[in-house]
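note to self: dont lose this again. the chain is below, predicted strucutre after it. 123 aa total, dont forget to put it in the shared folder this time
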Amino acid sequence: MKRQLTALLPAVAAVALTVPIGLATATPAAAAAPCGTVVSDRDGSSWVSGVDGVNMRSGSSTSCAIPGVIYAHHSLDYHCYTAQSGATWTFIRNDTTDRQGWVRDDLLPVRDGVRGSRVSCNI
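---
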C-alpha cells in the first residue's frame, strides 16, 4: 500500500502545480481606453439614441474631456467596447453631429438585451 501511495504522489503534485498556472493564464479582460483613444468600427451596429444629455468622453473615464453630448433623436454608430473599473464603455460615432467618443454602457439604452457594443476593442 505504501508503495502505491509513493508512486501516486508525483502525479498528484504535478496536477497541483499546473492548476494555479492554468488559472493565471486566462484570457485578460478588455482594458481601459486612455484619454484621446480613437478606435475603428468593429461592431457595425447603429441605433437611434433614446438617451438625452449624455456626455461622450475622449477615453473610458469621467476625467477625460467631453467632445460631444448625445440627445434622444441622435443616430449613433457603435464601434466596440472596453472595460474600466468594473464598467464597460462603448466607443460611439454620433452620426447626427459627426462627433465621436466613449460612453459608459449603463447610460445607453438596452437593445436586444444589451447596452452598448457587443464587440471588444481589444485594447
